[in-house]
Amino acid sequence: MNCLEERILKDGIVKEGNVLKVDSFLNHQMDITLFDEMGKEWKKRFEGKNITKILTIEASGIGIACVVAQHFGVPVVFAKKAKSINLEGEMYTAEVESFTHKNKNQVIVSKKFLQENDRVLLIDDFLANGCALLGLIQIVQAAGATVEGIAIAIEKGFQSGGRIIRNLGYQLESLAIVEEMNCQTGEIVFRKQ
Amino acid sequence: MNCLEERILKDGIVKEGNVLKVDSFLNHQMDITLFDEMGKEWKKRFEGKNITKILTIEASGIGIACVVAQHFGVPVVFAKKAKSINLEGEMYTAEVESFTHKNKNQVIVSKKFLQENDRVLLIDDFLANGCALLGLIQIVQAAGATVEGIAIAIEKGFQSGGRIIRNLGYQLESLAIVEEMNCQTGEIVFRKQ
User: Fold this and answer.
1) Which chain A residues touch B if contact means CB-CB below 8 Å?
2) What is the pTM of this model?
3) Complex ipTM
4) Is the CB of B113 less than 8 angstroms away from the CB of A63?
5) 3-state secondary structure labels for all residues of A42-99
6) Tell me, what's the pLDDT at A89?
């Protein structure tokens, strides 16, 4: 059992509607020491990959990506959810549906920050139906760059995102894959890795 | 001249309407090595302060806050801009107007993550009119916690936010204070520190 799985069992809370609350350490309050440990683990799992850039999506992915980036020695780009007057010029766009917020967002990345020779590691906090990841993959492909790997903190193994992404041939490394969770008992079962 | 001022002169772009674009290293693509240097500088400037938590606001503050937090050894909490179905329970709220996006947002912090004995360092990428900071200060005060200091990457010295915040008695440490900038010549003048 790795550091994230242990922490989920300790502090994660199972809510109705297949919601796993990890806001005390992952996506509202953030435990930076944990993020650093996660970075070490991903660095091992992606050994030999020549990553040149990390791409994530606002807001919960940013903190994890920035701490993890120190293990790879590369800059981080985050896809933005709304058009800003500061983000002019040409950009890559994708439409992303949020499981949590039940809405659709246009996400955008400035073309300046993804080059054809970039080998990109995608990072996000959750993988459920895979919409956010598929949007990021689409953006990397539009840039002619390569998705070198995908690092997810928590995958909901009972939703289809992980299967879809693996079937597309990507190296997807989820540190915790939740197979089942029970909001009555609070029990959480992880997939053996 | 510190690392951030040097970088702004090298890669910052002055646009019409008092916009300083720093999206190649600060708030879209993020230079993690620079953030680490900024953390070292703030750690010096806030020496002797017993910080227990860092509070920032999504999205651009998160990356800076998480890397800087490693120098203080504390968790980061970010104020969220919209109500999420995952963020139930009681929360502190404040209304914040964005200079960049010209809109108002309700920002929220779960009451679980700010305690009366917390000594909080506020971090954000920009300080212009001070609305975002005043919102964060309001939230810390509502929790009965203490604002121990405020760390800003870039302050627009020609707008009122910095003066307002310093007049309230807070230790505000902006790494770069832009006194003037000229979108015709591209010239940027920093306040001597």
Assistant:
1) 15, 17, 19, 21, 23-25, 27-32, 35-36, 58-59, 62-63, 65-67, 69-70, 74-78, 80-82, 84-87, 100-102, 109-110, 112-113
2) 0.95
3) 0.95
4) no
5) HHHHCCCCCCCEEEEECCHHHHHHHHHHHHHCCCEEEEECCCCCCCCCCEEEEEEEEC
6) 60
